[in-house]
């Protein structure tokens, strides 16, 4: 992770303020200020469209197909990929001041401030600008993507003339096939497939709005975008609209005297479908617009705040003693909510809907990092994401058959469900994604206690993945169950035997599938599960090989890993990181160098499989090898650092995870925010410092506060309850915010919790031998000394 | 290997006769009848150009660059590949008979016979054809690619009118940018790069010939082709020539009465260069033409036969008791000679110059299978191929640096020297190619005793490759020297630790480099080698890890291999082979299934590293796992089968290796012949049945005859001598054809050989436990019972 750049934001508890426009940080700020409800995503582009780093208007799962080329092909390589595309841009509002376009690159910018308000759920902007000809105007806009009305975004746009009368022309637009910066792809066919991806089908306008319908060229998806406006201002303004194939435009002309204000509320509605007809889709977005206008601008704002009030009651994490971290944790929670809130049986992508990074794909990190958090903060969003997985089971069965295995093989990366990975050693071979999905299912059932979900959704996913593992592994001559030739989470190691992470997760997958099938015997029978099959899962789980290096006293990440040469970190200058950009895979794979937590993640997710002593030794061993070239690492290292008594280090890692986008630590926040790292922030707090574990025997906490902080408080939903945990230096307080009495454990001791808060002491922290990171790869130290 | 198809050829000792035209076998026959001297290659296309399967005129190392695309790129992936291209076609001679084109697809074909004569080095053709209008002609053509005049091909073309007078027009052409069948590549950019690759630079004609100069569009190579004609026939024929950018054409018009003959000798000269100017290249080919005309047609034929008489004196293998195999072994030897004879410091490709398979690339098999044979049959050709490797050392040093290793990293596949592999797990990771080159160097020095070659060529190659191994491997904590994360010969296993083949070959590479440096201390010092470095090579060799499975009593092909699941051969139907076309790599890599000899090849090349008992057990173990989806396997299995007493099986494998193209066993002979399998035929005879070994302590033989054969005789060059070995059922005869007296060993017993032949008895063969192949993958049994 790179050192903090000069960050573009101020530190405030509930606001993210960009006090002045910084053209160099444009891409990062567009991502951090992206608004989304999980269905619609609008990057934080300026109202007038330019300057921009990357214009972005996304609809969840709306993609175009593109060729996947290979210098040397192979059986089972996917030939076609899926890429999220920029749909009809409905956030554009252009302004002409006496014939001069409002463009911040010209004239004088006296003030430019944008504020993301995490409690209001709005992005506001205030600009004072003087045109090259000397006309001064004040522009204030507020943008929301509604969390309550899924198809709706809205903008309130106000212009005031400051010193002299002026004729204003406001053009509010829908723009399809927007001209984008080049993707820099070296394959011209990919560029071609993604340039002007939308084919116009219909365009209409009425006095105050317009509707555009398009279909993608290859994937055959249809999108409708519609807008409507409410205008108020001095007498005599005029509103007209027009539409052509790729543009809908409402033009408002008004002459304003100094101090007068022109105020426009723009409602935008989106809908897409792979099946619905033009008239159906057209009417759908017009209906959404009608509902939004009925609710009104203030109504939308009120609904938004009420939704968020309810959310933050549970989800807010309070941190005393580090204002920057306090803000970052809230921003992280906000983006996790935005990614999942209204995704509703669609995938949650690695970047949410904040950018085009990773082509908009979803990976294993949604299940491993994001859903366990949503299960505790917004359980319906987690349930829906898992229902999406269930909905793509037919594709996963097909893929398994193609790969010669049984059960389901979920895609390593996808939008719609088909495998889109073009490099199988770090794609298809990473079968652990199937156990990761099963684990998210297991955690969700534990967190919610939702028996119907368990029977209708969880069971089928668990059975399908258990069948995969049973067929992917085999018993060796000594009777051990091996899983050979797969890739674990660490992408600097590939195609290995008995990756400990994979084997432990598969083991749990097999066990939980058998237990769940036993609990829902009739539903399981409908899936063809019988007692023999359940026994074969349990047997494989019981015989699962978990390699251990007796000489070093640690678990090798996979068979033989600890025999490999240790990477020469001393001779690796900082500019070589991330290594994958400067070193061939072959060299990374054959040496001990770790991109991201793998064995350490296994310890976080399967703490039951390690003794405390093993956990300490393993953590120290892998800490010295892990370079964190992936953002999917710091949060995990935070958790296990906290568990092994390295509280200061845990604090450093928590901050790294939380600040990844606010401080652009990975240098690529312009491609979208890092949803998994942000979700991991909550886990670092709750599981790490809170010591929260959740293994089926009940909820337990082992809270510990790092010396530099004076208080941490976090909340969660637990089987229909709302719970809050506060960690203070020498005690912890548990409070049931809502729901029936419950039992939990505090540092192993049972505790009954009802209406009254319970306070329990926290013992002193034992001293532990410090651990070391590879040369130059220690996290930035936040703790004093 | 598929069962024999109805083969298009008759069985004769020295001829390959195609008694009638079979349009379905066109591609295979074009490859088998391809003529080459290692510099020029002409596929066996019909004189008149069509019908064809693939027109082919190749110049060694004349290639075009093409893009190598990746769905997901990576550091160190080559961006540009090299593909052999069809250059100016000089073998076209079209005929018009009274306005009707001579085209075998029309009219009546009364007779069509082609004969490849392995002693004359010619391809002749005799046709009797009646035009749709009823005019009968007899055409006889003889084609040679001169082994003595490297730039020259020539055709003698005779037409006779059979029953009525006819006006004949013969058009003899040079055609550049010939229209080719589509490559079927799914990447249109590749198709584009290779369509019309030649840009015209110059065209000239004179009365009886023409010259064309072109340059490739991307690789910037320049090619000149020129032709000249000698015509004889009844009075009144007329010869004119013309040239345009892509066509040179000499037209001969003659009116023939029945029984009269028109006879044309066409001389074609080729030259290419990356540096020489148009005038220089133009003059070069005209000079070659002048020399050829000075020699004359009969002179070229005489030279060709004399060259081959000399060659066959040593190279001929006689087999009594199997006429088909006798022919096949000669054809195999012929193609190996053609591939290498006049390559002269250019690469010898996997298909020689007989087709475009594998893009015309050279791989490790040239060094492992082909050069050890040439070192004994045509030593200068082997020396030149190794000098080519030396000439690309600068590129290999560069590649090593890019990969983060020291010394030289030779390309897995290339024409000019740059890595062209687009799939690194089965390309760049197959580092064994470097030890294979070193081994070819070692064998060449042993075979020839050429001290100057050792000092000037061998030493540098050995040092460069030893340095690679020293840096690629490392000592583990137990002091063993490991080589992790590489791929051995078997392409159904990849990226493994301590591949036994690789480690044994690297061990020898390190030792021989140290020994050679010690013998040439001053030359070694100039390469920066000092005593410390030599000691570090010897030390690494001494500590080399060679894994052994104590439970099974066999060597695992690589670390952990024998723990993997055995492929389910019983459930794999014949149509699934070759597996790589129907199964993903991931499934092949993680199971015990072997494409081609790997550990067994290690036993062939490093017999000193195995006890006789290990060799037997290993052979039986790997025989049961090897499916021979590669043609680089049967010959090796033949050798080790013979050594372990499986003489019948060795005989079956020898036949499979020898017949690969005559019987199109791999189903892809249309892409070019399998040079390595053909070379392996000689090795199966000499090393397998002859028991020839060559380890620096002197030459030894342990001859054994399979019961079904009554005699095998083979010859070789040995340190300036010509030697012949004849194996009869109960005795072997050694004869020194030329050169000074020598010592050798017969079944371990010393034997002094001078003028008089020596006969020694062969003991009876011990009975051995039969071995088994995977279900359905046994070679076709030739032996009775």
From TrEMBL, chains A, B:
Keywords: Glycosidase, Hydrolase. Residues 330-683 form the Glycoside hydrolase family 65 central catalytic domain. This is Glycoside hydrolase family 65 protein. It comes from Pseudonocardia humida. Residues 18-273 form the Glycoside hydrolase family 65 N-terminal domain. Residues 692-753 form the Glycoside hydrolase family 65 C-terminal domain. Transmembrane segments: none annotated. GO terms for molecular function: hydrolase activity. Belongs to the glycosyl hydrolase 65 family.
